[in-house]
Amino acid sequence: MDVSSKIRAGWTWLAAPELWPGRRTAGEVVLALVLGIMAAGSEELLGGEGPRLAVVGIAAVVLSLLRRRMPGTVLAVTAALTPLLSGFAPLLMLVGWSAGRRIVGAGRALAMFSVAFVLFAGVTLQDSWSQQAPMTRLLLTTLYFLATTVVPGLASRYWTQRRTLLHALQERNAQLLWERELVAGQARLRERQRIAQDMHDSLGHQLALISVHTGALEVDPELTPRQREAVGVLRGASVTAMHELREVVGILRDGVEAPAPVDDSGRVRRGTAGIGGLVESARTAGNTVELRSAGEERPLAAAADHAAYRIVQEALTNAYKHAPGASISVELRYEPDSFVVEIVSAAAPTPAPGEVVSGGQGLTGLRERARLVGGMVHAGPADGGGFRGAG
What we know:
Helix content is 66%, strand content 8%. The protein has eleven helices and five strands, in the order H-H-H-H-H-H-H-H-H-E-H-E-E-H-E-E. Helix 5 (89-102) crosses helix 7.
């Protein structure tokens, strides 16, 4: 082991139990040197000279550096030397502060401070025993020790315990917050699973009945070809709805969007690749729908691709409900810095039969979906009648 390694190992031993950063290390060294200079300077003022000054200064530096590793021993040694070396008074205050927070256990701390007081008072009285009024001298010594050593030790111990308590309370508060979030997450998961189960049991059953009955009706020999085609559209729509229901139920149960199912016609594909299937389904249902694409096609981000599909789906659904039989134009524009979907529905040739069933949240949901991918949705009346939507 080289010299530098030994120095680092020794300094790690001194700094224990915590690791010091560079600034803290420099501060401790500077503080020890200042205390050493003060002790040597005070000794020189009292007539000391030569090697004695160096010994006093080095002793103050060493005791300052050892006060963390051996707080009780350094306290006792400093208390015994302070009556003999007046320059050790600042060091005694610092050692008392350090010992108060670093001696483990209240009983052990009381014992070490008592030993230090006995040494401090004994050396002081022995040095001045020939003087008169020894009890007065003992009283002053006691008050001095209380002010310079015991009070800093008690203040340090209180401050350390308060800081430890606050740290423990903060950790406990963080733990409680984490547990509360965990409980809330579990409650949300249970509610989502309950909703998913309800959707699966109720809507799944109804859609299965629609699919079965339309399948049976599709092969009824009494139907005309046009009627059979319309029933086929209904059956395909019910099958697609069942696929989408399974997808939503999977998201509610697991919180992860499952891959969209794909059939031969591509009706249930998500994203711009599935818009053609939506248009084809609309045409099969008897609507006149024109699909145009402008610009150089490019792959979109998954969220934006899915949002474009939903915008077209919602716009076509609104056109079916509010303007049955009207011609519809769907345009996909790949612009240099954006992707635009525009759906224009002409004025309805005849009013919609009966009351239109609507949840009233379709456009609101589309606007939020577009906002999440950095886009926007515009919807309103078109020139010459009809309705226009773009996103």
